[in-house]
Amino acid sequence: MRQNRLITAGLALLLMFTGVSAVSAGNISFSGYVRNYTGILVDSDPLDYSQVQNTFDIKADYSGDMGDLHTEGFVYLDADNNLTAGIRELYADIYFNSLDLRIGKQQIIWGKGDGVFITDVVSPKDMSNFILPDFDEIRIGVTAAKADWYVGDFTLEGVWIPVFTPSVLPDSHSIWAVSMDFPAGMTPSIKSAGLPDPTFKNSEGFAKLSYMGSSFDVELIGGYMWDDTPVPHVTKFVPGMPPDVTVTPEYHRLSMAGGSFSTEILGVIFRGEGAYYDGNYFSIDPDNLQTDLIAGGDGTLQKNYLHYMAGMDYSVFGINLSAQFVQQVILDYDSRLKNDEYESTATFLAAKTFLNETLKVQFFGYYGINNGDALLRPSVSYSIADGLDVTAGSDIFMGDSGIFGQYNNNDMVYIKIKYSF
Questions:
Q1: Phi and psi for 97 in degrees, rounded to 5?
Q2: For 84-117, what is each residue's pLDDT tens digit?
Q3: Helix (H, G, I), strand (E, B) or coil at 203
Q4: Is 331 helix (H, G, I), strand (E, B) or coil?
Q5: Residue in 199, 201, 195, 258 with CA at minimum distance from that of residue 228
Q6: How far is Cα of residue 213 from the mean position of the Cα atoms in its chain?
Q7: Do 33 and 420 meet the contact criterion of CB atoms below 8 Å apart?
Q8: DSSP H helices in 209-303
Q9: How does DSSP classify residue 296?
């Protein structure tokens, strides 16, 4: 609570400062939006809200001769009048002849995938509401120094993150919480994950070399980082003495190398993205957990894996179509793992605008091939007036297991009213 008050006070001072500056400087611009987002769970009896959120988001940009300043703050107010405020981004840009520097809290977006994170791993994620919010709200800004060096059609980008920022996971009482599986009769005691010490040795580094040509573009990416999500390790096992299992989630170092590309052939845009991850920890299946613990294990195995996507975009009769195939492959697979050796997902998007682009009808869906589960997201948006938009839609979960099937009882309908300025 005290932290929220401090953030709110800091945000108010920042907005007041930029507002006063705007009176005397014409090169400061403001933008933002006010939004109400209300969702209702359709499978609950009686009907219950899945989300009630009032949002005020404001951006302030200052343009100078050699650089710019940018800040974005937000305030959330839920149905219980709980106030959450913070700074989404706050950074300075400095421009040179062939070099740009960005220093401060920033969102960094990499990769070519839609609705998936493969090489887009620099910014951690806020998964409090699964993957349903807009992606600029899912990504968490990191305090970093970023440099872009331009040489012809090539750009070399480097990112240094001095202090690790983890992803935000759903609260244990949330409808999006993911429970850990244990064998029947095993009583766990789960501890909190400790963050890596804020030292230079524990900082993160990323690099990207990109080429933007007239017929195609390509990116080569590498990173030495922390896994943004902690992995549960069993640190104590005493059979028959509840709690007989003590679980300690831990963050681990990862190395990543990958890339992406896109090109257009006969009006069809082809996209690809892939990454090799070294040093990831995977959990052992609950059916094999006790045997692993008795043998001296900790409920995890370290394995390298591949994660890649192939996609295509096409427009016909004014309908924008997009499809992707996404797969994760665990190398040197062990049958004791909870994850499958190959985990495959397909996505599909169809969108069309009407009435001079004031009405947009869209359908986006995920399909988990391994478990036959799915997330279907139809929506309709209408622009009532300049800056005023209304969106109605639904999020439909299908299946009994898998990443989407686990939320089979969370089907919802929602409406968003948003005024942008």
A1: -60, -45
A2: 999 999 999 999 999 999 999 999 999 999 999 9
A3: coil
A4: coil
A5: 195
A6: 29
A7: yes
A8: 286-294
A9: T
Supply φ then ψ for residue 32, to 5 degrees: 160, -160
pLDDT, one tens digit per residue, over 57-87 is 999 999 988 899 999 999 999 988 899 999 9
Sheet architecture: strand order including 245-250: 188-190, 245-250, 231-237
Does the pLDDT of residue 13 top 50, yes or no?
no
How confident is the model over 183-212, as pLDDT tens digits? 888 888 889 999 999 999 999 999 999 999
- The span from the CA of 14 to the CA of 70, in Å, is 11
* 3-class secondary structure, 27: coil
Q: What is the pLDDT of residue 27?
A: 87
DSSP labels for 108-177? ----S-SS--SS--SS-BB-TTTT-S-HHHHBPPEEEEEEEEEETTEEEEEEEESS--PPBPPPTTSTT-
CA-CA-CA-CA torsion for 113, 114, 118, 122, nearest 10 degrees? 110
Give phi and psi for 2, each to the nearest 5. Answer: -60, -40
- A 10 A CB-CB count for 332 gives 10
Instruction: Note the pTM of the prediction, 2 decimals.
Output: 0.89
Residue closest to 370 by CA, chosen among 337, 330, 328: 328
pLDDT tier at 356, thresholds 50, 70, 90: very high
Report which of 185, 321, 212, 298 is spatially closest to residue 250, judged by C-alpha positions: 298
Binned at pLDDT 50, 70 and 90, residue 42 comes out as: very high
